[in-house]
Amino acid sequence: MAKSATDVMQEIIFSAVIDSIGALKSASKGMPNTLLRDVNALHANSTFADLPKELQVTISASVRGAFNRLLKEGYSVAPAGAAPPPRAAPPPSAAPKRRPNDTRRPPPRTGGPNRKPPSRG
Question: What pLDDT, on the 0 to 100 scale, is given for residue 115?
Answer without folding.
Answer: 65
